[in-house]
Known about the structure:
By secondary structure, the chain is of the alpha+beta class. The chain has one domain. It has 13 helices and 22 strands. Strands 1-2 form a two-stranded antiparallel ribbon. A two-stranded parallel ribbon has the order 3-16. Helix 9 (about 335-345) packs across helix 13 (about 465-475). The radius of gyration is 22 Å and the shape is globular. It starts with 7 loop residues before the first strand and ends with a helix. It binds heme C (2 copies). One heme C (HEC) binds near residues 130, 208, 209, 214 and 275.
Amino acid sequence: MKKLSVFLSIPIGVLLSSLLGSCDSDGLDAIDIEVPAGYELSAGTSTVFLTSSVAYDSEAPWVSGDYLTRFVRGDRLYDDVRTSTNGDGGGLGPVYAGYSCGSCHRNAGRTRPGVWNDNGSGPYGFSAMLVYITRRNGAFFRQYGRVLHDQSIYGVTAEGKLKVDWEYQTFSFPDGDSYELALPHYTITDWYADEIAPEDLFCSVRVPLRHVGMGQIMALDQTEIEKLAAKSNYPEWGISGRCNYITERGKLCLGLSGNKAQHADLTVELGFSSDMGVTNSRYPEEICEGQFQMTEGSMMGLTYDKLDISTEDMENVDLYMQSLGVPARRNVNDPEVKEGEKAFYEAGCHLCHVTTLHTRPRGSTLLAGTQLPWLGNQTIHPYSDFLLHDMGSEIMGAGLNDNYPSGLARGNEWRTTPLWGVGLQEKVNGHTCFLHDGRARNFIEAIMWHGGEGWASRQKFASMPREKRDAVVKFLQSL
Ligand code: HEC
Ligand code: HEC
């Protein structure tokens, strides 16, 4: 296969000692890594050169023929608003969180979350978020299950509504510039059944993830990730990443997707079932968690005897997501972007947001067995190690800790978010809310929420002069 990535390499040790005298002063050693000069091809042959609002939502160049037909069908199923009828095209509810995949992942991105619009679910609003709830001892609530469904079909009560109260605090960079962080405090109101006491409740709020590079993630050379976990140990930076492992269909798998790397696949079946109430072969039960007595496939006088989506169609959705193109970088030769790129390495961001990885030779296999060989043997630039890192519990007395474990991931551990395409989020979705719960309103806030293993890196960034910090932001906008 033709290799599309060509880049010059300069060892960062040389760069750092020649350009940046400050390294020795804080005891952080320069890491020997290659700084690639100007690679645009984020995902090899899957790279697309789009900068518009459909930059995340267009097929990779190799998608054609039967695959294109299936891609288009998958795209449609992904975006079609489900109705509450039974069977094909229906199945919404009785309670749900979203009414189509695209309702939360607009343009295959991150729909503006209700945390900021409506301070939560809003009275009538649609939040585009997932709210995970558990008892403080880790057990699920019998009447509510794992996800709080804050929406419902006609005649049914939503399980509850999320409310966010923001606590604001202003901080200063060493050079005197200031920035503000906003810490969310979540409560749940309007419980449809038993009131859950706040002392007995942990709730973790998640805004959707962008679908950039889903196929590449599924095709990752997993031994490379496991080797990275063994290598990801930089005591002087306080960084040590580790893999999440989860049991899927009775098999122990490496977790790659989700904010805590808590899933091994693209959760199509789970998304239909748990997020929307659309029954399928893997999850045939309605998700009303005891709100209704389902007797012999009927509920409220309606029959619920058919599955709402076929496995073939779920595979089309899987195919659609895995065949999406990954936007190429932009402005790679802009001097400020280049300056920001150097600063990104200088601040050690790349130790977690790993720039270059590879996919395995055979590419990816979809949920019903279709192969996508085009995803194989690619050099990709996801800006993630797909590992878990302790992101701390200190900043504003809470940090990013959500007290919600998933697989091996603890409350304070998160998967490094891949940054490819992040610079287009504003164009695609019209907002710059970042981090798992959308609390950061811009890139600076996202960085300044990095605690724990990210602390040394954040401090490096904070100690840079304003022009350099701005250059880092410019660089992120070029991804
Ligand atoms: C209610 C909003 C909502 C709906 C509806 C929804 N999602 Fe998501 N999706 C999310 C959120 C929030 C996350 C992050 C979850 C986490 O990390 O815990 C996510 C994560 C994902 C991921 C993981 C992405 C990654 O980068 O690791 C995939 C894939 C995905 N969703 C696919 C789907 C599909 C397919 C559907 C439709 C069947 C769907 N989603 C419907 C909100 C939604
Ligand atoms: C210790 C590993 C680590 C280091 C070092 C690190 N990050 Fe992160 N980064 C993460 C993790 C984990 C998340 C996800 C946290 C969350 O969502 O709560 C993240 C999230 C982000 C996000 C938000 C992405 C999104 O779409 O929500 C941005 C932007 C970001 N990091 C930029 C940077 C920059 C710039 C640096 C260097 C100054 C840096 N990071 C250093 C691990 C790291």
